[in-house]
Amino acid sequence: MSERTPVIAGNWKMFKTNTEAAAYVAEFLELVVDAGSVEIVLCPPFTCLEAVRRGLDGSRVRVAAQNMHFKAEGAYTGEVSAPMLNEIGVADVILGHSERREFFCENDADLARKVGAALNSGIRPILCVGESDQEREAGGTNVKLRGQLEGGLAGVSAGQLSDMLIAYEPIWAIGTGKTATPEIAEEAISFIRGSLADQFDKVAAARVRILYGGSVNPGNIGALMAAENIDGALVGGASLDAAGFASIVKFG
Ligand code: PGA
Question: How far is the CA of 189 from the centre of ligand 1 (A)?
Fold first, then answer.
């Protein structure tokens, strides 16, 4: 039995206005009062972060941003920084989601700087890694994963590794309804844990929580969470409905 507390995070992506977010939070909180020992994270767009955080005050639910810049401030139009997120009580930040890598050209070197900036500000990074279907078919999954871990975690110490979360998100499973089977997800996540043991050490690798993401829904969460190395889920589409996401949170 793993000592790692499960984490279920809902990534809203570019969905929900403040009005919609407020209605969601009110409904969701009632539904998860009796959830077991699982960490719950909501990741709304920047515009809703503060209102959602206020709405969750006094609850166990954490709030995460979906991205941030690595600099504390500067002439970077359209960006927000770790100190800005910190001041409004944002606890976590998703970094390197495949949509950021693909549509906004984020690379591992940028991500290493973002991970470091988040850790230095006391914000917990959730670093996403994952292969495309072409990479998987060509037998390149492990090389891709190892490269993203070595690049994105270049400035992290073994002691800091457990202050962050890793999310394995195969690109072919994101938003496609094509969930990785528990066997495929477990194989990749146990490879990630082994790779982290090489990069850091065995103790740090055994402690860090690694989530699976890609078409998680109320019907498949139980089987995924039963796998030995899967410590939680990063949920996109199925997190947009409060009742559906609450039932994922209560997978046990
Ligand atoms: P999905 O997205 O659950 O809609 O597949 C997952 C993610 O992008 O984190």
Answer: 17
